[in-house]
Amino acid sequence: MENDNKKKPAYWVEPIKIAARLSSWIAFPVIVGYFLGAYLDKKYNSSPKWTLIIIGISFFVSMFGLVKNSISEYKKIEKNENNSKLKKD
């Protein structure tokens, strides 16, 4: 009875959360890398050396995080599908 009272989130909530999480892995490291690189270039008067280096590194960090989270989400989806198949049988 207690489980009946709990509301399930709308069907679109979880995909939006996944999309936001994955998008943040694309944008956040590159933006931080740009500002860090621009700061280092200004400090050492080496424009655009550090900006390009840091953005390059942040790109690889983004790809690593994106792939890692994508694999994790895929495993969750696969597990949920397997659980729903077991419940139907």
Describe the structure.
- The structure is a single chain.
- The radius of gyration is 20 Å and the shape is elongated.
- It is built from three helices and no strands.
- With 89 residues, the protein is mostly helical.
- The longest helix has 40 residues, at 49-88.
- Helix 2 packs antiparallel against helix 3.
- It has one domain.
Brief summary:
The chain has helices at residues 2-5, 13-44, 49-88. With 89 residues, the protein is mostly helical.
Keywords:
89 residues; 3 helices
Instruction: Report the biggest beta sheet as strand number plus sense, adding barrel if it closes.
Output: none
Distance between the termini: 24 Å
DSSP helix count? 3
Q: Spell out the helices and strands N to C.
A: HHH
Tell me how many strands there are.
Answer: 0
Mean model confidence by pLDDT: 90
Q: How large, in whole angstroms, is the Cα Rg?
A: 20 Å
The overall number of domains is 1
Residues in helix, %? over 70%
- Overall structural class, as computed from helix and strand content, comes to mainly alpha
Classify the beta-strand content into a percent band: under 5%
**What shape does the CA trace take?**
elongated
Unreliably modeled segments: none
SSE layout:
Blueprint: H1 2-5, H2 13-44, H3 49-88
